[in-house]
Amino acid sequence: MKRISRFLILTISLFLTTCAPSPLSTSDITITLPVKCQLEPSQSVTVALDGNMPSDATIEWAVDRGSISRLENNMAKFTAPDQPGPVSISVKVTANGETVTKTETCTIDFHSTNTPQLGINTETSQSDPVQTPEIQIDIIDEPSYDFKNGCISEFWREWPANQASIQNSPVSTCEDFSNNGLIATSEGLKIFVKEPKDEVMFGLTTKIPEKNTHIAIQLRINELSTNRLEEATDLFLGLIDSTLNTLNGKFLIFRAYQLDYPPALIYREFTESGQVKHISSTIDISKDISIIIEKDPLSFSLIITGISGKSIEITDIPYDSKWDSLIIGYKIPAGSTFSGMIKDVQVSTEN
Questions:
Q1: How many helices (H) and strands (E) does the chain have?
Q2: What does the domain layout of the chain look like in residue ranges?
Q3: Which residues pair with 88 in a beta bridge?
Q4: pLDDT at 4 over 60
Q5: How far is 64 from 89, CA to CA, in rounded Å?
Q6: Cα-flanking dihedrals φ and ψ of residue 46, to 5°?
Q7: Who wins on pLDDT, 25 or 167?
Q8: What is the mean pLDDT of the chain?
Q9: pLDDT for 30 beyond 90
Q10: Across residues 225-238, what is the average pLDDT?
Q11: Rounded Cα distance, 223 and 229, in Å
């Protein structure tokens, strides 16, 4: 009887030890800051919290100057103070009865708005050459498709969008889509949407050149899961007609089906004669995925690597000039999750 009692005590002890939640540590969490911290007075940027944290963890943000307010998906909006200098951004995470704190420093350097004075010498003799002031010419950059400078430029448009709100001429500012789970970091565009209350669908579109075009995209999928028996979680990208607010065109879809099914890669056409083609029934999310789109006036092709041992090619896809934009987006059912990173987007043209 004593042996049985000791065995039961030992078993219960091992069970409690095994099921006990792992302790938090500062190595579990990371504060992701934007690459550039040069802000105008009262300008806001989005910061993010990464790491392995329980879903019921309590998160508290704080700054020593300026203000910070919590957003969804472990993000927060930091508003700069009215004076330059360093700002400490800290976060306190409480879970399983333990609390850890992490702090990062962001240096705020405000841009000067003072106009330099032009000195004029009124005693110049007639023989002296007339000094004309230099004319400053603003150089307009090419469209920035990449996100690694910590910015979602206005060359990327919200989708679906109210067409009346679309500007004809993009300007060099950064868009904030943190409420939609998107934040630009030094590594690329982070996408994190966890267990929304209702189904959400969102994307970014950008116009592509009319000439022969080469588009290279690198991405990493960290989690792609659905909590619904009959609804799938999708990450999709492809070419669309930007004048329409519906899914139209031709797409690659990374899809998570029912709970017991592995994620799959699908090619789908949202056209009158649309087709659906299952390309791969499994996706290795431990690797970076590369997607190449080659477009000419009549057709385009897709080359995907990182899904399996060899590249997957879909060639001779008929192209219509109305598909003038690249889209990257997601559809996530209620209670489901997508986490990943668009690491690089490069667009080039060929004559």
A1: 1, 23
A2: 26-108, 152-350
A3: 105
A4: no
A5: 7
A6: -100, 135
A7: 25
A8: 75
A9: no
A10: 87
A11: 18
For the chain, helix, strand, coil in percent to 5 are: 10, 45, 45
**Six-digit token string for 300:** 């385009």
Going by C-beta distance under 8 Å and a sequence separation of 6 or more, which residues neighbour residue 44? 77, 78, 79, 80, 176
Instruction: Encode 249-258: b = buried (16+ Cβ within 10 Å), e = exposed.
Output: bbbbbbbbbe
219 vs 30, higher pLDDT: 219
What's the token pair of residue 118? Answer: 């032009």
Q: In what order do the strands lie in the sheet with 276-280?
A: 157-159, 200-207, 325-332, 233-240, 249-256, 264-270, 276-280
> What pLDDT, in 10s, does the model give residues 147-169?
877 888 878 889 987 544 444 44
Q: In what order do the strands lie in the sheet with 312-318?
A: 182-185, 188-194, 337-350, 212-225, 289-295, 299-305, 312-318
Q: What are residue 28's phi and psi, to 5 degrees?
A: -80, -20
Distances (CA, A) of 278 to 71, 79, 285, 333: 37, 46, 18, 21
Class of 152-350 per CATH? mainly beta
Asked: is 26-108 a CATH 2.120.10.80 domain? The reply is no
Q: Euclidean distance between the first and final Cα of the chain, in Å?
A: 88
pLDDT at 198 over 70: yes
The values of phi and psi at residue 187, to 5°, are: -95, -15
Same CATH fold, 152-350 and 26-108? Answer: no
Place of tokens 């329409």: 244
Distance separating alpha carbons of residues 46 and 116, to the nearest angstrom? 33
User: How many whole angstroms separate alpha carbon 253 and alpha carbon 246?
Assistant: 16
Q: What is the pTM of this model?
A: 0.62
